[in-house]
Amino acid sequence: MGAACCAGAAVAGGAGPTSLLDGTIWGFVSALPIALYHYYPHVALGLVTLLAAATSTLYLAVVWLTPVTKTSSRSELSYVSPASAAPQPLPSLLDDAEEVQLSVVVPAYNERERLPIMLRETVEFLESLRREKRSLVQGSDEADANVAASAGEEHKDAQTVRKALYDPLETYEIVLVDDGSRDGTHEVALEFGREHGVEVRVVRLVKNRGKGGAVRHGVLHSRGSLVLFADADGATRFGDVSTLSRALAHILTPRGHAMVVGSRAHMVKSDAVVKRSWLRNLLMHSFHLLLTLLLRPPTPASLIPAFLRRKDGCARGEQRQRLPVQPEIKDTQCGFKLFTRPTAKLVFPASHIDGWIFDVELILLAQAASNLAMQSKPPCMPSQQGHGQGECKGLEGLALPIAEVAVHWHEVGGSKIALLTDSVRMALDLVVIRANYGLRRWQPPPPAL
Where does the sequence pass through the membrane (predicted)? Predict the structure, then answer.
């Protein structure tokens, strides 16, 4: 479980002084090198040389640690299914035509034992909706759809997404991405599809890429108006997709953008967390701290008591219009996230991280796309319906709102995470994300317009 931050600005724009106090402190600090050079020129030159060498070393380290973009082989751009043993070409997320209401993307690496349980729960739930002619939101509060649609003109993408949410579920797909497994995971998935008469599209990656790479590959070749990725261990109750769907229906923008994150933050004091080893809990809290420091560092003004600060614009007697801010996401790492197709088109093609920490980059990219849209057209962003309550509180006016929704989760044995080595890799990937977007080596996504 992690603590994501409102770090879209780190991707979308520069990080200059945020208040008069910050500007004053920044001006004082920037004057120190000039004074040092005036009185001690040799010391100043020595420090500049050391700083240049350290900066160059750090830059080279970032370049070395940055993952290389992997290209897909011909076999990885095809799938097999119970209905077709011959490889068929995969579709593209960037295609305009949606063919199913929901795509469920399941990344799997050596999941022969755990996968059938997850697939069974998934299929049983989705088939029950289809059999009983219920929608993904299970027909709750249909009036919301009409109110939201009448609040302003909706783009056709938003209409398609809303239809997928509120119409009885008729079409869905399961995309199983076998991430270089060696235990016959793909065979288990195909056998499950044959036994249950379900279309399971199996994509096999030649080499293990990591969870992030597998999820990206599956989403980029999905067909749904809605795209859910879910872990193969079945730790999250699949029926909670309806909870995520209801939240997404409330925050859906007129351009069809929204993202809902399953969260285990409410379980932080439960037995499932408290009774884990002290090392695992220590690493979890250290991850929270590092994530906050790297992606949402405190400013000087934020460290000074409020009564010493001056109000923005009071020097000129003017008032600034503040853009809406995405509330903090408390759990970034839960493997249960729901995207609209327009949102998936923005964030997944722009993502880079293949490892465990890829969720953080997706949230950053979504926030960046939202910030860029609001900066370009701040007065024109209409508010969405239902933002004022529960998990949707504080999302009013965002161009790409991200809701965090509590889900039912339980510990499942057989985790593929190597506690120490993967924790170090995750910490390094956080630095890589922050550095590459800060240095503009990685480009932000298009605005969510």
Answer: 41-65
Distance of CA 98 to the CA centre of its chain: 22
- The token pair at 53 is 């060498």
Mean pLDDT for 414-426 is 80
Question: Coil, strand or helix: which one is 28?
Answer: helix
Q: How many CA atoms lie within 13 A of 160 on its CB side?
A: 20
DSSP one-letter string for 271-295: HHHHTS-HHHHHHHHHHHHHHHHHH
Span 401-425, mean pLDDT? 85
Q: Residue 252: what residue type? A: L
| DSSP-based three-state secondary structure for 370 | helix
Both tokens assigned to 303: 């460290």
The HSE-up count of residue 270 (CA atoms within 13 Å, CB side) is 11
Q: Is the pLDDT of residue 192 over 50?
A: yes
Report in angstroms the alpha-carbon separations of 118 from 108, 111, 188, 192, 204. Answer: 11, 10, 12, 11, 19
- Which distant-in-sequence residues (6+ apart) come within 8 Å of 300 by Cβ? 21, 22, 25
Residue 178 DSSP label: E
Q: Comparing C-alpha atoms, which of 385, 167, 163, 160 is closest to residue 255?
A: 160
Q: Classify the C-alpha dihedral 187-190-194-195 as positive or negative.
A: positive
Contact call for residues 315 and 20 (beta carbons, < 8 A): yes
Task: Summarize pLDDT for 211-259 with one digit per residue, the tens.
Answer: 999 999 999 999 999 999 999 999 999 999 999 999 999 999 999 999 9
pLDDT range class, residue 286, cuts 50, 70, 90: confident
Q: How far apart are CA 393 and CA 245, in angstroms?
A: 16
Q: Which of 376, 399, 363, 378 is nearest to 323 (CA)?
A: 378
Task: Give yes or no for residue 314 having a pLDDT over 70.
Answer: no
Asked which of 5-19, 108-122, 261-275 is least confident by mean pLDDT, the reply is 5-19
Q: Give the confidence band of 432 by pLDDT, cuts at 50, 70, 90.
A: very high
In terms of C-beta density within 10 A (0-12 exposed, 13-18 middle, 19 or more buried), how is residue 91 classed? middle
What residue ranges define each of the domains in the chain, with the CATH number in brackets? 73-295+325-438 (3.90.550.10)
